Amino acid sequence: MEIIRYKENPILTVEDVPFRVNSIFNPGAIKFQDEYLLVCRVEMPNGRSSFVLARSKDGIKFTVENQPCLTPKDHGDYSKYVEWGIEDTRISKIEDDYYLTYTGYSKYMPLVILSVTKDFKTYKTFGPISVPSNKDCVILPEKISGFYWKVDRPSAENRKDIWISKSPDLIHWGNPQFLMEPQSGTWQGDKIGISTPFIKTKEGWLALYHGVRGFGISSMYKLGAVLLDLEKPWVVKGKSSEPILAPEKDYERVGDVNNVVFSNGWIVEDNGSVKIYYSGADTNICLAETSVNYLLSICK
Ligand code: BMA
Question: By residue range, what is the domain housing residue 124?
Fold first, then answer.
């Protein structure tokens, strides 16, 4: 199975949100108890983002809750790092806890915030786990060689590469190592970032990443797949040479930011099929289906 868009995309738009927002997009995704959960980014009328939970029994038809589940104001002493909003969470289940890594945006520029929940009702924040500028952070779901591992995208001068670092406790991170860089003159020529959390497969850690190519004042966001070594996650075993999903449909081409497909959440089913939740043009939430086997085949 290649990538198949759900025929009734988008599955969520502003019309499905029971309070006033400019847009709903870029959700983290997880199965929790007997439900599919999306922790969606909602851009509020003032242009700053918060998160709201959407629930579903089938992974397709979602109901958005009546109020945000996490806002910049919930960040206590760390509020100054999220004053301009919280964006694009990734969710990693580690033992019995769900860790959210997301962008905190403020005058200090984007950095990575870590929060944790057990029940998607109450959240505890640990504040920043990076200095600015950094975003697109995903924590691997288990310890490897005795450490936790995070993959993120620091910006240094004009470089936008993906790096990996490790931690004994999820709070203190070190030993950063370079992982991947943009490929000049291709669909991923200007910047890249990890999109979804990593799925453990027999062949390695599998994730989607986004590649960006600028065209004058605009740019195009597409998705590819990458495979990291299981025991040595600082080794890239393979990646797709071509994008697996690119802006083609009207709902991906036209919106608040044109020509964007962006994902930070997916769910693997027991039969190896994968539901990719993604957003078109920073304006909606869409669904596409594929399989672990297909993604592995294109990473070779
Ligand atoms: C990235 C992030 C995403 C957004 C994407 C396309 O830098 O800010 O939130 O979806 O750009 O605009």
Answer: 12-299
